[in-house]
TrEMBL record:
CDD domains: CDP-ME_synthetase. One of its GO terms (molecular function) is 2-C-methyl-D-erythritol 4-phosphate cytidylyltransferase activity. It catalyses: 2-C-methyl-D-erythritol 4-phosphate + CTP + H(+) = 4-CDP-2-C-methyl-D-erythritol + diphosphate. The keyword Plastid does not apply. The record marks R149, K205 as: Positions MEP for the nucleophilic attack. PANTHER family: 2-C-METHYL-D-ERYTHRITOL 4-PHOSPHATE CYTIDYLYLTRANSFERASE, CHLOROPLASTIC. The record marks R16, K23 as: Transition state stabilizer. This is 2-C-methyl-D-erythritol 4-phosphate cytidylyltransferase. One of its GO terms (biological process) is isopentenyl diphosphate biosynthetic process, methylerythritol 4-phosphate pathway. The lineage of its organism: Bacteria, Pseudomonadati, Pseudomonadota, Gammaproteobacteria, Pasteurellales. Keywords: Isoprene biosynthesis, Nucleotidyltransferase, Transferase. Pathway: Isoprenoid biosynthesis; isopentenyl diphosphate biosynthesis via DXP pathway; isopentenyl diphosphate from 1-deoxy-D-xylulose 5-phosphate: step 2/6.
Length: 225
């Protein structure tokens, strides 16, 4: 039995939402987006702990009673997502596997999570969906090439890795000034080849105002079915 810990980086402000508060605190069905996301992991029997990285200036998180769960630990995040994830995994001092999941992905299905948790390879794995749209490479706003979409995937979360490997990978990438767009990119820079696990396309990340209505639809549909 592996020890499995979830890390939720939740220190961003979500500027593209044009909202008066960070997007993880916007409400869907009477709960904040962050509450919906946390409940996915709180209800899973194989996840022992959840570490939430919040901003030091965050005035909203103390109001969430769900964060009082003994299963949840709060840490302060950093300037970037990678800094926040690194601050969270630094407090893990045991041999464990870590799931990193976006705070603004409240529609993750248990079936996808269970598929990911079956991975044993030391390179870890991520949820992803194959690209189905025609993909263009651009220079500014001009097309310079059409990419072969058969080899392209959209990276999702959670992303699942041995914590010590991820800790060293992010540390090395940050020290060398690499741009880390997700945890898998840090692992790739350290020579790992994470596995792609096909996930559901409705595991959307709420980024723009129109995403709220879509997430509301998905959550309502799940409740009804």
């Amino acid at each position: 039995m592996r020890k499995i810990i979830t890390v939720i980086p939740a220190s961003g402000v979500g500027s593209r939402m044009n909202a008066p508060l960070p997007k993880q605190y916007l409400k869907l069905q009477g709960k904040t987006i962050l509450e919906h996301t946390l409940n996915i992991f709180l209800e899973h029997p194989n996840i022992q702990k959840i570490i939430v990285a919040v901003s030091e200036t965050d005035q909203y998180y103390p109001e969430l009673s769900v964060l009082n769960s003994p299963k949840i630990q709060i840490v302060f995040g950093g300037e970037t997502r990678a800094d926040s994830v690194f601050n969270a995994i630094k407090v893990i001092d045991e041999d464990a596997w870590v799931l990193v999941h976006d705070a603004a992905r409240p529609c993750l299905k248990r079936s996808d999570l269970d598929k990911l948790l079956q991975v044993q390879e030391p390179s870890g794995a991520i949820l992803a969906t194959p690209a189905i749209d025609t993909m263009k490479r651009a220079s500014g706003n001009k097309i310079v090439a059409t990419e072969d979409r058969s080899t392209l995937w959209h990276a999702l979360t959670p992303q699942f890795f041995p914590v010590n490997a991820l800790k060293h990978a992010i540390k090395n990438a940050l020290e060398q000034g690499y741009t880390i767009t997700d945890e898998a990119s840090a692992m790739e820079m350290s020579g790992y080849t994470p596995q792609l696990i096909t996930g559901r396309s409705d595991n959307l990340k709420i980024t723009r105002p129109e995403d709220l209505a879509l997430a509301e639809f998905y959550l309502t549909h799940y409740m009804e079915n």
